[in-house]
Write a structure and sequence with these properties.
Layout lengths: L2 H32 L6 H27 L7 H15 L3 H23 L1
Helix pairs in contact: 1-2, 1-4, 3-4
Length: about 120
């Protein structure tokens, strides 16, 4: 195995470990929203972590595909991120939660099934 293949395998392992954590984080944020706590510090920190995590996952999938194309396509997530950012900038937390729950989470779950 060459260096690139090793790097891809390690990145796939990291993504595999990270996807369930991201899905749980999304579920936790949605619970904050459902309980009217979406603007509390803990909720803001969680949302910030979700944004950072989605960026990392997108970059990881892009790099994996550059070296070893596979079933995960970063475009599936990238398409949804602009909608997510718009909802956040407009402080539309209902839309934000809907995008996380019904647009982004299914992609993450599909990817988790594809690489596990």
């Amino acid at each position: 195995m060459n260096e690139n293949e090793i790097l891809v395998e390690e990145t796939i392992e990291e993504v595999n470990l990270y996807l369930p954590k991201m899905i749980n984080g999304i579920d936790s944020f949605i619970l904050y929203f459902e309980n009217g706590k979406e603007k509390e510090q803990e909720s803001n920190t969680l949302l910030s972590n979700i944004f950072e995590g989605l960026e990392w996952i997108t970059q990881a999938v892009y790099l994996i595909n550059k070296i070893k194309p596979g079933p995960m396509q970063e475009q599936e997530l990238v398409e949804k991120l602009s909608m997510l950012i718009d909802a956040y900038e407009n402080e539309d937390y209902l839309l934000l939660c809907d995008i996380l729950d019904y647009e982004i989470k299914p992609v993450l779950k599909k990817w988790a099934n594809q690489i596990s």
